[in-house]
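Morning run. Coffee first, then this:
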Amino acid sequence: MMEWLHSVVVEHSAVQAVIVLSLLCACGLSLGKLKVRGISLGVTFVFFMGILAGALGLSIDSQMLRYAQDFGLVLFVYALGLQVGPGFFNSLHDSGLSLNLLSLCVVILGFVMTVLMPWTCGINLADAVGIMCGATTNTPALGAAQQTLSQLGVSSSGAALGCAVTYPMGVVGVILALIFMRKLMAKTNHLIVNDDEDADTTFIAAYQVHNPGIFGKEVAEVANISHLQFVISRLWRNGKVSIPSSKTVLLEGDRLLVITNEEDSSAMTILFGEQETTDWNKDDIDWNAIDSNLVSQAILITKPKINGKRLGSLHLRRHYGVNISRINRNGVQLLATPNLRLLLGDRLIVVGEKESIKNVEKVLGNAVADLNEPKLISVFAGMTLGLLLGCIPIMIPGISMPVKLGLAGGPIIAGILMGTFGPRIHMNSYTTQSANLMLRAIGLALYLACLGLDSGPEFFSTVVRPEGLAWLGAGFAVTIVPVLIVGIIALRIMKIDYGTVCGMLSGAMANPMAMNYSTDVLSSDRPSLAYATVYPLSMFMRVILAQVVLLLFL
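And here it is:
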């Protein structure tokens, strides 16, 4: 019995590698559900289980280890890029621009501290980059750094070990910094929490037309004059409710139900004349009770031919007499503007007569089962494109060797491009949120298990040595200092609310555990929205800078 168990679990083979990695992932994910004072390490526990198993002498074939580690990394970053792709470029302007600039400050400060480590702490640069990757919980950046070190003929074992030593503090350090900032800013009366505000991007209000300047003008004409984005969902006139079109003429005394952006609500009052006090943004409003002839229904886009088309090109108002009041995409409410490109999985809120809405259903699909079928062709084709992209050498002036996006940078860019532009060329790259989370979780768990196994044999002996303590101190500084500096600037000087700052800092540090902690404590979606806004650009910059720093200063 013992010989059989030894041959299955210890002796190197393909089956043994799968058994060991599966066992590490299962145990680590189970322990990751434990919470201490509301803090859970989640999938990070897989990394620690790998370290423990490696320290106890368990190993798998080196080629199998490298394959599983690389495949897990590619799967994780590609699925991540695919998920954030549709909103990535939109996040680079408006309010998202300031958040991304702040997150880049966090990234640059961390790299400046890393470059200074050889002079301030006596840590060689290769190990310092690994320490930085662990301190920022950024395993894709470590993968890029390891590839660059391999190209330079330098051992990457120190970088992996530095990441392993500082990773736990990187997880906890961001959460400690967020707690400290909350208490500090509360004492100085600079804390802006806004936890109870709706994180959606749309705002619904009723207005009465009392502005003589728009009497007798068509809705389209009023929109052109004001340069504001809004949708008029319903119009009350002489006690009757109707669905206005762009040609509808506005008269004095008309009541309008308007969907707009919250920051434009005051401008809408000036434009139309008077805002009513009724709160139309509550979740418990029965929209179908407003008028017996009109109903409001959510319709899911499931037909591939609609994927990537602009809303205005469907002419739903002209053909079916309905209005699209707003669009729900991954839990975020978007204003239904004519230029908005529709994606598979979008949920359109349609207002109209019952028969008209049934006809719109036939156009859009509304067949949930169609979306549940996985689109594996786009997944494998996208990963192939990402790997090819990662192999392209990029020459940067002043650097003798070309920079490559590698296994981390290439797939995440391919995922972003596929998620963003795939719909525009009618390529079906849609995956349900649960399927995307599954791909990401499997990839990250595999990568962390392999990384832990590889680092485990030397982990504990390194921690107790003087240089191990220096690594811990340097890693803690890289975690805490940039977060505190940028966080306090965002809160005190830029007056950004605390929930958004938490999400921005968590995304800049690639720390989903800190984001989950913020979401749980604040009971708000603001951290997760800010996290998704800054994560792609921050991740991309860390992957690139990890290579550039090594090529420039090593």
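The radius of gyration is 27 Å. Good start to the day.
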